[in-house]
Amino acid sequence: MRALEAKFHDLCLQLDILPADLVQKVKIAWEKEDKRILQEAKVASKKVHQMDMLVKKFSSALKPWTPVQKRRLVKRSQPPKEKPVKVKPAKVLTAEELQQLRLFGDIAHENAEDFLYRPMN
Questions:
Q1: Are the C-beta atoms of residues 65 and 80 closer than 8 Å to each other?
Q2: Measuring CA to CA, how many Å separate 8 from each of 4, 5, 20, 31, 115?
Q3: How crowded is the C-beta side of 19, counted as CA atoms within 13 Å?
Q4: How far apart are the first and last CA of the chain?
Q5: HSE-CB for 1 with a 13 A CA cutoff
Q6: What are the structural domain ranges in the chain?
Q7: Residue 44 is inside which H or E element, if any?
Q8: Distance CA 103, CA 121 (A)
């Protein structure tokens, strides 16, 4: 242990003797290299994670398909039957109404029905 402390003390003295600008340049270069190594490690860890996810997805895709348990269907009541449409019986026209129809035959069809079926005074 004493040998390591002595070696460390000698190296610190040598650094103190070196010019400050040279020490600063070496320190900056070392920090850049350290940052580059950390960045490469991050990228590599992301790639490893992506590969793990791909392997997991592909392995699940290759597994045989098993049907999913579904809920039981609830029985529902029958829908109501359609009610028949009531058709009004055709109205038998009186003589007056036939005369009005002949006189005012150029009235539009929808207006003609209103005109024929309204009560007369």
A1: no
A2: 6, 5, 19, 21, 119
A3: 3
A4: 131
A5: 0
A6: 2-62, 88-121
A7: helix 20-62
A8: 18
d(CA 99, CA 82): 41
**What residue type is 27 in one-letter code?**
K
Per-residue pLDDT tens digits for 7-48: 999 888 888 888 888 889 999 999 999 999 999 999 999 999
Backbone angles phi, psi at 40, to 5 degrees: -65, -35
Q: What is the full DSSP assignment across 4-33?
A: HHHHHHHHHHHHHHS-HHHHHHHHHHHHHH
Mean pLDDT of 47-52: 97
What's the CA gap between 70 and 72, in Å, rounded?
6
Distance in angstroms (rounded) separating the CA atoms of residues 47 and 58: 16
Dig out the tokens for 78 from the structure: 């029958």
Query: In angstroms, rounded to a whole number, what is the distance separating the alpha carbons of residues 110 and 96?
Result: 20
